[in-house]
Structures are given as structure tokens and as C-alpha cells.
Amino acid sequence: MRTSLVLTVTLVLGILIGPYVSQVEFFPQAISASENPALRSGDPLPENIFIELAKVVNPAVVNVAVSFAARGGYRDPIFDLFEQFMGPQGRGGGPQQRPDAQGLGTGFIIESNGLIVTNNHVIDGADLIKVQMINEPGTYHDATVIGRDPRTDIALIKIKSNKKDFPILKLGSSKDVQVGQWVAAFGNPYGHTFSMSKGIISAIGRQIREINALPFIQTDASINPGNSGGPLVNTRGEVIAVNSAIDARAQGIGFAIPIDHVKDLIPQLKEKGKVVRGYIGVGIDEINPRAKQALQLPTMEGALIMSVEDGSPANKGGIEPYDVIIEFNGKKVDSARDLGDAVADTKIGSSAKVSLYRNGKKLTKQVTVTEPPEMRQRWRQARKPTPESNRSPMNAIGLDVIDYSESKARELRMPPNTPKKPIVVGVQDGSPAALAELRPGDVILEVNRVKVSTAADVAKNLQTGSNMIRVQNGNQVGIVFLNIP
């Protein structure tokens, strides 16, 4: 319930280049489509393959220039990525105080009306977005955000123009890409506009969940800051992935988002401006050794169900607290994050088969995945403390519990959906309750798998030795283990 994540890889999104680069402009030789009038994205290419590939792809690639107004100081996101993996770097980890800042990235046009795919981290928080095309040196088009999805780092932007004949790139398929396949990366590395690099597919299915929910395609085609959002294409000029990240510790290790996943996102981003994820209405946690022992589980793989919302898809499907889900909709679930990803990626309205452990037995359930409900409003108005009745101090273990009351819930600013269960109001430092990580404000739901309604129920169901207590704090539910000598 209360754990921390330690990351061990060093990755940097190929993102923004500061003002010292953005003030240098390049005006490449314009490429005329008449030089290859019959050559289009997706056509077979001749022996001088990469020369012709550049002629096919570059006209539909755009440089993306963004600017950010000052909001109490600017911080280049590239430093956030370094610090996420390596800790604060320089200047005490503080923000860079600048009145404003610019950055550069890449995108590519997928519809003739000027619709562009890029990375979310390229345009995230931008106050102004402008794009430049290779055949219009010195000309910048205004662009606006159509939709964005931080979870997958994909965004759609659109050129503000009534023009209907922008050059486009064909979206290929990433399903059949193979290690060793030739590819080319296009973009705006370090402000060197309309650059191309070639290489091969180095690996597929790279899971780096610290920075993206989707598996990456790995390539040794050079990708640098500024390439983010650019296309990774095959030798037919078809986009097979979107350049997104690099491994800062190495050369020739870049990562791109498979285009098949991107194609699944585009309709929702165009229609709703965001991606609506699947929802089943459960609170989940990882399985630790003590939970494995207490629940008599065969392994620590799976997602432990901490809570099930009333009336939710999980509730209607027969999912219960203490269930351990090991498979969802055909996907193996090794961790709580696996379950979250599996649910989020399941089509809304579809029925999902769920395999789980309950009381040592393996069961199968069916759950219909729905859209998530609107976030509930929290109580924010504080109240003066009121005297509590039905108080049950457990001095021997350093725990002070009271019966639920509306006044105490308001005083502690608990959400309106807080269960009317005993509330922890005091924990003595160094006590067994403190070692179990019980905290004031915790609502006790069950003690040793027995539901409790009053503070007296809590005291009655505690026993010498190990106790498993299910608690809720805010909207988070978890299990703590209290050892009573």
C-alpha cells in the first residue's frame, strides 16, 4: 500500500532544445515532387533507396517549434527525465528561472488537411506551436492541439489553414517488423532541420514502463533530442513507428512507439481530444511476502484486489476484496500495473474473462469494461473538532480508534464516499501500530477478514501475533499487517 518505486534505467525523451539552438535557422534545398512524379509513400523504391526515401518522406515531415510563457520559472523537461532516473542534477535540482523558453521537436502529416502526429511531450504545456515544412523555408504555420494522450506520449496537432493538399505519409504496420530490418528516422535533431538517419530494427517489444505504457521498437538509427515525434519508416516509405526516446548512457539505442498502437489512438484523439480508458472499479495493490502467506497464495504474481466499488463492473462481475487477479482478457497479470494496463487497453463495452485466486481456489469471472465515472468531489470545508464518543484506545499497541461520525469525517476532510467505519485518530510513535504504518485518518474496513463497524469491533477482532487489517485512506485501499506481542 505504501511503497516506493526505484528506477534503474537512464532514458531521455528526445525532446526540447533550448533557445541557444532555436535561434539558428537552416534553409534546406527545396525538394520538388516533379522530380519523381510517380513516386508516393508506400511505393516500392529503386536501388538508390535512401536517396529516394528522403524525397518521399521529407515533404510530409514538419519541424515543430514550441514556446512556453513564464509561469514562475521554466524547467526543460529533459532535466526532469534525468532526475527521474538519476536524482537532482546541478543547481540543487531547482528550476531554471527564465522569462520564457522555446523548444523544437518533429511531427509528420497524416491527412491532407494538415493533421500531424507528434509526441505529447513535445507540445505539452506549450503556449504557441508553429510548424515548418521543407518546401517552404522560412515559413512557419500556426498549429493547434487536436488531442493528446500522456499515457502513450502521442498527440495530434493541426495546421491552421484551409489548404487541403498537404503532402502526407502512409501509415504502415508495426505488426510484422523484424529485427535486422532496414529503417530510417526523420526529424529535427538539435535544430538541424529535416535530417535523416538510417539503421536497422535492433529489438522489438521493449517494455520500459517508467516512460511509456506501450512497448517500444528499438533502433540504432540515430535519434537525438529534437527527433521526438518524427517518423521511423521502412524502405517503402511507410511509417512503422514514432520516434520517442533515447538511452542517454549509450550510442545507437533509440526507441519508437509502434504505429499500430498509434493508429488505434487516432480516432479518439480526433473525436474527443483524449483517450478514454477502460474501467472496472477496483482498488489494487502488489502482493508482498506477508500478503502471500496470509492469503495462502502459490506465488507473489498477480494483482491483489483491495476494494471493489458498489455497482461497478467488477462488483457486478463478482470480484471481491482479497481476490488475486492473474489474467485479464487473455493477458497474464504479474503485478498491479499489469492489471491496470490490461483494463485500460480493453475496448469499452467489451466483456473480459478474468482468472483469479480466491481462498486458495482458481476461479473465472466475466467483467464488462466501461468508461470511468466522473471523479467525485471531495469535502473541503473543515469543521471544528467535536468530542468523540465510543472511543476505543488500544494503548498496548499504540492505537486510538473512534466510531465514524459525520463531524469527524468533515474535520479530516474525507471524501463523501468514505465508508462509515471506525477511524484511526491517533498512533503512538514507535508502537506496533506505527510499525504497521497505520496512520491517523485511516478508516478500518476489516480486521483479520472480519468486517468491522465500530471501534469496539476492531478491538474484539485483534489477536496476539500477526493481524491483517484492510484500511482506506482517501480513495486508496490497502492492507497493513499489525503484529501484537
Protein described:
The protein is of the alpha+beta class. It folds into three domains: 1-275, Thrombin, subunit H, CATH 2.40.10; 282-368, PDZ domain (Pdz3 Domain); 391-484, PDZ domain (Pdz3 Domain), CATH 2.30.42. The protein contains eleven helices and 26 strands. A six-stranded antiparallel barrel has the order 8-9-10-13-12-11. Strands 2-3-4-7-6-5 form a six-stranded antiparallel barrel. Strands 14, 15, 16, 17, 18 and 19 form a six-stranded antiparallel sheet that branches. It is elongated. The two termini are 23 Å apart. Mean pLDDT is 79; it is low at 1-12, 14-37, 71-100 and 375-389.
Work out the number of β strands. Answer: 26
Helix residue percentage: 10-25%
Number of domains: 3
CATH topology of the largest domain: Thrombin, subunit H
Specify the CATH class of the largest domain.
Mainly Beta
Shape estimate: elongated
Distance between the termini: 23 Å
Uncertain spans, ≥5 residues at pLDDT below 50? 1-12, 14-37, 71-100, 375-389
Strand order of the largest sheet: 8-9-10-13-12-11
Strand content: 25-35%
What is the C-alpha radius of gyration, as a whole number of Å?
A: 27 Å
Mean pLDDT equals 79
Multimerization status: single chain
Count of alpha and pi helical runs: 11
What is the architecture of the largest domain at the second tier of CATH? Beta Barrel
**Class from secondary-structure proportions:** alpha+beta
* Largest sheet, strands/sense/barrel: 6 strands, antiparallel, barrel
